[in-house]
Write a structure and sequence with these properties.
Mean pLDDT: 97
Shape: globular
Structural class: mainly beta
């Protein structure tokens, strides 16, 4: 059974940076596609960034050139480096692991961007 534990969230000022981490345990990390999603109050959960098991990445338009997703298969961890944070990036950030139709979610980590 897959377990995902996110960390690295917190309060940051506009223009600041945070790095989120998602530690994967249970099965073979390297075969899973990984992703970061976020949900702001009153809004639907949206995809932020994904990385395939071969390292191919996608980003939602609003975070391109500011966020970078990466994975370390030796550490069973996926990261989201977030730079130049904006108040509209405030949300709970969730990690997802997917293998074909199997989806696994973490509990989320809060990111708040405010002065």
């Amino acid at each position: 059974q897959v377990q995902l534990v996110e960390s690295g969230g917190g309060l940051v000022q506009p223009g600041g940076s945070l790095r989120l981490s998602c530690e994967f345990s249970g099965l073979i990390f390297s075969i899973y596609a990984m992703g970061w999603y976020r949900q702001a109050p009153g809004k639907q959960r949206e995809m932020v960034a994904t990385i395939s098991n071969r390292g191919e990445t996608t980003y939602t338009f609003s975070v391109k050139d500011r966020f970078t997703i990466s994975r370390d298969n030796a550490k069973n961890t996926v990261y989201l480096q977030m730079n130049d944070l904006k108040p509209e990036d405030t949300a709970v950030y969730y990690c997802k692991a997917q293998y074909f139709t199997e989806e696994n979610w973490g509990q989320g980590t809060q990111v708040t961007v405010s002065s």
